[in-house]
UniProtKB/TrEMBL annotation:
NCBIfam families: spore_ylbJ
Residues annotated as transmembrane: 6-26, 38-66, 78-99, 120-142, 148-168, 204-229, 241-264, 284-301, 321-342, 375-392
Organism name: Gracilibacillus kekensis
Keywords: Membrane, Transmembrane, Transmembrane helix
Protein name: Sporulation integral membrane protein YlbJ
Domain of life: Bacteria
The Nucleoside transporter/FeoB GTPase Gate domain, residue ranges: 42-136, 216-311
Length: 395
């Protein structure tokens, strides 16, 4: 009976979305174009190099090398193997959903148990500094100091999530011997991993490119889909209905109700939600709190991307989702605690640096983000053309 109910629900939702797409063709087209532009201009060119490099590092045993070196750190802190250090670093550098991608890849390689992978994916899927500082802080708020506050809050709260999730299924604790820092053992593991790799160099390079692009195509589909869904919910005023419920909760905590709709939008799509928060009339502290919550929650768009990646393995999605709620709670409190020491005290030092240098370091990040936006489409087009050539050769 439950399965029949699920069938009816899934079919009804699909029919409803199809009807709305037909009823609002202009709005759907604009939302699709907006999602496609974000994917082609920013997401694809910024993630593809990281995905390809990660595939090569795994194939050539570098991840095994890093795993041995990071074992004395990752085990006590997060109760995961040393290879988690690679996923954690790459996830922060490249942004979501890279943490899920690399965790799933290492799980398929057998370097993580199911429980370890579920722990690891909860705190390695984060936003990259380029997006937090370049797009959100400077692009939306025109505020350099806010970027520092949001970045520190985002990564520190994610670290706290990792420490908490080390106790997830703690009774299944795997027996292991504590390893000291040893470069010789790390090189030995690197060599053994490279020897086990039977694919030729050309095959490894080709598989790295094709696997990375296939993952990014799925990610692009989800970005466009949730951009359309968000627009449909606005057109039928469903977003305003749910925002009304959020407004009631905000009133209980004496928070501005004008944040209800941006917060609801941010729960679906991070970029749109953060932009709407920046356009409200609230104080900068209130804006920082809500943007931190949106970044921590990841948005249903990113969560759907993570779910699709994890579906290829036996890693469950539920721990990741619960960790996002925990991340949002940590981010809310940490941004309040750090607001005065990080944001307020940065004003004077930033003015001094502005007087000494014509272009502060944070403006370089903005410049880099603009470069990615301007030339990202051409990079995406060339990569997709190369991908088609590889597919034709394989056939």
């Amino acid at each position: 009976m439950n399965q029949k109910l699920y069938s009816i629900i899934y079919a009804s939702i699909s029919v409803f979305i199809a009807v709305m797409v037909i009823y609002f063709p202009q709005e759907v087209l604009k939302a699709s174009q907006r999602g496609l532009e974000v994917w082609a201009n920013v997401v694809f060119p910024s993630l593809l190099p990281f995905f390809i490099v990660a595939e090569l590092l795994i194939a050539f045993g570098v991840v095994h090398f890093i795993g041995v070196l990071c074992e004395p750190i990752m085990r006590p802190l997060f109760n995961v193997p040393g290879v988690g250090g690679f996923v954690w670093t790459m996830g922060m550098a490249s942004g979501y959903p890279s943490g899920a991608k690399f965790t799933a890849r290492l799980r398929q390689e057998g370097q993580l148990t199911k429980t370890e992978a579920e722990r690891l994916v909860t705190f390695t899927n984060a936003s990259n500094p380029l997006f937090i500082i370049g797009a959100v802080s400077i692009g939306f708020f025109y505020d350099h100091q806010l970027g520092i506050l949001l970045a520190i809050t985002h990564y520190l709260s994610n670290f706290c999530v990792g420490v908490c999730m080390r106790f997830y299924k703690y009774h299944e604790k795997k027996s292991y011997r504590f390893q000291n820092f040893s470069i010789s053992k790390a090189f030995q593991q690197l060599h053994l991993a490279r020897i086990k790799e039977k694919r030729a160099l050309g095959k490894i390079l080709g598989d790295s490119v094709t696997n990375s692009i296939q993952t990014l195509l799925v990610i692009g589909g989800f970005i466009i889909l949730f951009s359309v869904l968000t627009e449909i919910m606005r057109e039928i005023h469903l977003a305003h209905f749910f925002a009304g419920g959020i407004a009631i909760l905000l009133q209980l905590f004496h928070l501005p109700i004008e944040m209800a709709l941006p917060l609801f939008t941010g729960f679906f799509e991070i970029t749109i939600g953060a932009n709407e928060v920046s356009q409200t009339e609230s104080s900068i502290l209130i804006k920082a709190v809500f943007v931190s919550i949106i970044l921590a929650f990841n948005g249903f768009s990113v969560q759907a991307q993570v779910a699709s990646i994890l579906a290829e393995t036996d890693i469950r999605f539920a721990p990741y989702f619960l960790a996002r709620i925990l991340h949002a709670v940590f981010a809310c409190f940490i941004v309040i605690l750090l607001y005065v020491p990080v944001y307020k005290n940065q004003i004077h030092s930033t003015m001094v640096s502005f007087m000494k240098w014509e272009q502060p370091p944070l403006e370089n990040i903005q410049f880099l983000y603009r470069i990615v936006e301007q030339f990202g489409f051409f990079f995406t087009l060339m990569a997709l053309s190369f991908y088609l050539i590889l597919l034709i050769k394989q056939k």
